[in-house]
# Entry
Amino acid sequence: MYEKKIPLPLECGLAMTREILGGKWKPNLLFAISQGINRPSQLHRAIPQSTKRVLNLQLKELEEFEVIEKKIYHQLPPKVEYRLTERGETLMPLLSQMNEWGEENRPFIKRVILNRTKVLD
Amino acid sequence: MYEKKIPLPLECGLAMTREILGGKWKPNLLFAISQGINRPSQLHRAIPQSTKRVLNLQLKELEEFEVIEKKIYHQLPPKVEYRLTERGETLMPLLSQMNEWGEENRPFIKRVILNRTKVLD
DNA sequence: CCCTCCGGGGATAATTTTATCCCCTGTATG
DNA sequence: CATACAGGGGATAAAATTATCCCCGGAGGG
# Structure
């Protein structure tokens, strides 16, 4: 994993949460897993904008912080399942709120983003 | 501002929220402003790990998405005050939860982070 | 005159995060 | 044999975000 050169503020709750949920696809992954979409290939199909590779990296970090658990079935073809840990469960309310707030404000935010380039017509 | 080359999923609530709160210091800024620490120099003193420059950039983005408002008093010495907009107020519950979750899990997260390098003893 | 404070930002570097590309084991199916 | 599926990851590039450096105007106090 990439080793940070700039230490992050370990005494700040906000920074801690950011460390867990800050990854681009982490919230989506957690959300999906909580809904039972818990196998790597399923997750990739659920989030096709990303790549297996990247999703694996983010999953690994979620696992490192014990927010999800990985179960490997030593079979052929291989089978892997992720699921939320207890700690992970405690994140769900937060995720829901993030999603709700985003949905409620989406129309506006979208407009702002699109207007950043449109103005140049 | 930097113009993104990879378009973000405009139909996803989580992505929208990330767009607003994703900046490294944005949650801290919002939190501080909500507490009445609302002048640029005060904010910088409250978040000395960052720089005026960087804080200004992030404040500008928060302003762009109408989460905060900037009031400029044309005086000498100049005076500027930020405050939450209505939209910004709706973020506060989210921020509180992020902070709480982070605080509750801080000991553990901290340990994980520190152990990433310590193992090499 | 020098330093401090208030506010600001251009230019550029460094860091961090994501993406891309391609290869791997092994089974099954056309 | 080729392709698809299940799982995985090294190497490297690109993108995005943060940091650093230094300068600006103007007022005020030693």
